[in-house]
Amino acid sequence: MAPPSRSARAAVLASSVQRSKPTPYPSKARSALIRRTVVVVLVLVALTLVTISFRSPTAGALHDIQGTGSTALRPFQTAATRVAQPFRDAYDYVHGLANAKAENKKLKEQNAALRASALGAAAQLAKQPDYAKLLHLEQGPRFPNGYRAVNASVISFSGGAFTHSLTIAAGSSSGIRQSSPVLSGSGLVGIVSNVFPDTAIVTLISDPDTFVAARDLRTRVRGVVGTGAGGTLILDHVSKTEVVRQGDAIVTDGTHNARYPDLYPYGIPIGRVTSVGVADTASFLQVQVQPFANLGSLDAVGVLVPTHQRR
Q1: For the packed helices 28-55 and 61-139, what is the interaxial angle rounded to 10 degrees?
Q2: What's this model's pTM, rounded to 2 decimal places?
């Protein structure tokens, strides 16, 4: 018997083995539907868990599950914190440095403003004693009748050892005029020698060309206060027969003839006698006077202005 042919054998083998059908791939619409379903389910679960968490008591199965989850995740949280900490520290350092620079600049500006304000307040405060003395003199019995005081700050002293003048911050706009007497709260300072609208020049009684009619307040002896040897004040033209003692107060002598009024009203304190000497070669007593006003350190002065202008 002849063997079957190769084609017949292949046909038999093919008929005995059944091939499985290929699994079809899901369509795009089906995949999108599945993804949407999963998202909706997750959202519903999250909302449910949040609602249960807020409404459930502080203890319970859900809180136990949350605690277990937190415990399981704590190592990862710790590791993440350690990894992020250097970056957080670097950010905090840079941010803090920028804020510190800005704050430092702001504080410097505030400090400069406060320093300027403090200096201005200190400068004004330094002048308060002189203003207080002027007010006391103006309200006291020694203030000359028929005058008012225009108080002004001393804004500059003329330079030079042989210059005896100062500038004040008041002038003709305040009623000051030339030859107005000037005094401090302690005594006579000088006389106005030049006037401008807002300033005036005052020549001090220590100027060699300045002379003031004066008298001894105790003995009534008259003389002329001027500058003697060495730049000190003296009461000159006092006869040797007159009596002047150390410690006597010297004041302005004032006007004796209405037709020829003196520049200085009566009674302004000038100074105190420090020594009285007699020289055989001198015609008058040698009376030295220490001025009441500190002519080298004045912050404020008062200028005497007549309450009624003279014709």
Answers
A1: 60
A2: 0.58
